Amino acid sequence: MYKPLPIGISDFKEVIEDNYAYVDKTLLIEELIEKGAKVALIPRLRRFGKTLNLSMLRYFFEKGKQETGYLFKDLKIWKNEKYRALQGQFPVIFITLKDVKHDSWEKTFASLRELIAAEFERHSYLLEGNNLTIKEKALYHKIVFGEDGETIIEKSLLLLSEWLHRYHSKRVILLIDEYDTPAHAAYIGNYYDTLIGFLRNWLSAVLKDNVFLERGVLTGILRIAKESIFSGLNNISTFTILNETFSDKFGLLESEVKELLDHYDLSEKLSDMRKWYNGYRIGSSTNIYNPWSVLNSIANRGALAPYWVNTSENALMKKLIAQGTSDFKADIEQLLKGEFIEMNIDDGVVFSELQQNPNALWSLLLYCGYLTLDSAPSYGTPCHLRIPNTEIAELYKSMILSWFEQSIHEYKYRLLLSSLTSGDIDTFSQIFQEFMLSSVSVFDVPSEESEKIYHGFVLGMLIGLKDRYEVKSNRESGLGRYDVMLIPKTPNELGIVMEFKKIGRFEKTTLEAAVDSALKQIEDRLYAQELIDRGVTRILYIGFGFEGKEVLIRSKFK
Question: Residues 364, 508: one domain?
C-alpha cells in the first residue's frame, strides 16, 4: 500500500499523524543547536520544504497543553537523548508570510495584522489569571481584534515574547517562515520602500537585544541586503545556498529520491528525474533534487513535466528576464548550450538595483533556483553558474520564444521556422524583415555593439528549433569560424550555415555586396565541413546583410 504524498501539505503534525510519505529532516534540529546561532537566516529555493521544516521545529520545541513528542519517536532526532530532552520545553512564536503577496501596501498590512492577531489568539491562555496587567490585557485584545495601529504592530512580536517569557519562565523560540515573500510582491506592486520600512522595524524590535529570545530562525528565498532590512542587527547568522551548513536539510538528496521511487515502484524513473529535477548545488558539493517536482512526478507515475516552473510564483522572474538587456539574453543563450557563465554574486539582494546592476539580477536568479553553481564557490572570486536541469532549461526556452512571439503571432513564428528549414528563403526573408521592423529600438545600438545584437537576435529566434536541430555558433569548421550552424538531428534533413555581415554607418558598400561576401566566405572557408562530417547531404548557405533595421537575405545550396 502506497503512502499518500504530502503535496501542498506543510503542517508537520498532519504529515506524521496521517501517515504521509515523509523524508526525515529532523536532524535540522541538531544542526541548529550545534551551530549556536542566536538568529539563523536560512534562504532556500521556493517550495523546497521550508514551511514544513519550520512547522517541524515548532512541534519539537513548543511547550503546549498537548504533548507532541510522539510525533518524533520514529525519527532520527529522537535517538539522541541530549536533543530529546529539549522537546516541548519552550514557548514558540510561529508565523508564516508565504501567502502575503498583494498588489498594495494596504492589503499587505491587513494580511500581516491578521497573521499577528491569529498568533496572539493561539496564545490567548496568557490572558488567564494575573499574568498580564489590565493595560496589557487591553492591548492584547486590541491586537487580536485588529484595532491597533502600525506602531503597535511593529512592536507586537517583542510584546508577545515578553509575555510568553513571563508566563512560562522560559525564553522564546521565534520562527518566521518566508519572511521575504511580501518583498517580492512589494517590488512588483511599487510599494517596496514602505514594506521594507515596516519589516525593518518589526523584526528589529524582536531580534535586537531581546532578552526574552532563546533562538530565532527565519527562512525565505533571498537574503535581502543587510542595509535594507537587517540594519543594526549583528546577531543574525546567514546560511545561503553558498554555505555548507544545512546543505542537505532542504530539498532531496539522491538517496532520498531513490528511497521514494522504490516505495512507489518507480525505481526505473531515477535517471529521468536526475536530468529533469536534480542539479541544484548547495555549498561545495551537495547535489539536491527539487522536492516539489519529484513529488508531483511520483503522483503522476513518473510523468516528467515542469511542475515547479508551472506554479504561479514566477511573476517577478518573468518580469526581470523579459526586461533583460541584449548582453543578458546572449548569456542566456550560452547557458542553454549547456555552458557556464562567470559572474560576481552579491551576498545580499538589493531590489532597487535589479535593473541597473547585472550582478543583482544574476544573484537573484541563483538564489531563486533559476541557476545553480557549476563548481564550489570560493570567497572573493566570480562564481561559475549554469542551468541546473531540464525543467529550468525548458523555462528559459519558453521565455525566449515569448520575446519573439510578442512581436509576431505564433503562426507567423512557426512559418518563419518552417520556411527556413525547408529552404524557402523568400518567405523566411519576408517574415524576418517584418520581425525586425516591429522590434522598435532593439537595433538602435552603437555600431560596435550591433553585430552582437544581430547575432543574439537570430540565435534567440532559433530556440524554437532545439528539438530538431543542434544550434551552434562561433565554432570552428573548415578553415575558420562560422557565425551560426544548424545541424539536423536527423541527417536527411536540411543542414544550414549562416554568415552575418553588417554595414557600418559610414561604410561605402551595399547590402547586396555584404550578402555576396557572406556567401563567398562560407564557401571559401569550407564552413560546411562539420555538416559533411556528420553525414548531412543537403546543405544550405545563407548570407545576411544588416544595416540598422534593414536586412537582405540570400541563399544557395552547396
Answer: no
**In this structure, what DSSP letter does residue 287 have?**
E
What does DSSP assign to residue 548? T
Query: What range defines the domain where residue 69 resides?
Result: 12-238
pLDDT, tens digit (0-9, with 9 covering 90-100), for 232-265: 777 899 999 999 999 999 999 999 999 999 999 9
In DSSP notation, 300-314 reads: TTT----TTTTSSTT
Given 343, 361, 394, the domain boundary residue is: 394
* Domain co-membership, 368 together with 227: no
Output the average pLDDT for the chain.
Answer: 89
Mean predicted confidence (pLDDT) in 537-556: 90
Beta-strand relationship, 476-477 and 480-481: antiparallel
Strands (E), 115-243: 172-177, 213-220, 236-238
Question: Cα 352 to chain center, whole Å?
Answer: 18
**pLDDT for res 441:** 46
Residues 6+ apart with CB under 8 A from 339: 386
Residue 26 CA to residue 141 CA, distance in Å, equals: 36
Retrieve residue 403's grid coordinates: 520575446
pLDDT tens-digit profile of 513-538? 999 999 999 999 999 999 999 999 99
Same domain, 505 and 486: yes
